[in-house]
Design goal:
The chain is mostly helical and 112 residues long. It is 64% helix and 0% strand.
Amino acid sequence: MSNQFGMYSEQYTNDYSKEQNEQFTAAFDAITQQFVAGLNEGVPADAASIQDAVRQHYEFCSQFWKPTREAYKSLALSYIMPSPYRDTYEGIAEGLGKYHYDAIVIWADNNL
């Protein structure tokens, strides 16, 4: 699976090597696929497996910035409000943005 979010990365300074970027892409895609699988299987957003995927997502994001509870939930809000992120998630699977948002809010409220 290619990185659907890569088209937006031009907005940010990227001082990473090609290999590092490929590793970031693969890691992010693997995390996203956990959310897709959970959504497709009807796993609740508060299930342990999905909450673990959120932890992985948070740890991934934390490589680049350390979001507070409010900041992390604001990022998740971009998955349901009109944005390129929402459009990308919805292009992967209908309802994925809301599912990911719900899971992040639960995790952030319990862990941050």
